[in-house]
From TrEMBL:
Residues 1-26 have a biased composition (Polar residues). Residues 1-29 are annotated as: Disordered. Belongs to the asp23 family. Pfam families: Asp23. This is Asp23/Gls24 family envelope stress response protein. Coiled coil: none annotated. PANTHER family: ALKALINE SHOCK PROTEIN 23 (PTHR34297:SF3), HYPOTHETICAL CYTOSOLIC PROTEIN-RELATED (PTHR34297).
Amino acid sequence: MSDTTNRPQAATAEPVSTGSPGSSGKSLALAKNDSSLVGERGKTAISDIVVAKIAGIATREIDGVYDVGGATERVVGKVRDVLPGTATSTTQGINVEVGELQAAVDVSIVADYGVAIHQLAAAIRRNVIAAIEQMTGLEVTEVNVTVHDIHFGDDDESVDEEPRVQ
């Protein structure tokens, strides 16, 4: 008789590589071991709106992002800013899908003119992934960035000019 049959197997805490680009490979291990999103004593569910807010704030932190959202979302956001009792939406321009252990994010932005868009998208991707994985323990499978427009710095100055006719 072998003495290994009654010996309990040791659980490993090594991270499982998920293969997703920009991921450190530790997120799946965190989701399964450290954060206990699904455990023997219960389940933690994280709402889509929570992940969307985290992604929205992380996107706005990046230099070169002028605004978040497509044209319609930005117009609604400007109307919301003017109305008393309303606040700017942190989820504007952010769409998420959240599962039990994973999340996918779509981000729509307006970039500042002169910024390298591919580097801006990479920076947004890194920041969003880091923020979501750190705060929720969810593995971020993808962050898709759509650039809807470019903002020129002189666009704001044209509003402040004196009228040509008095």
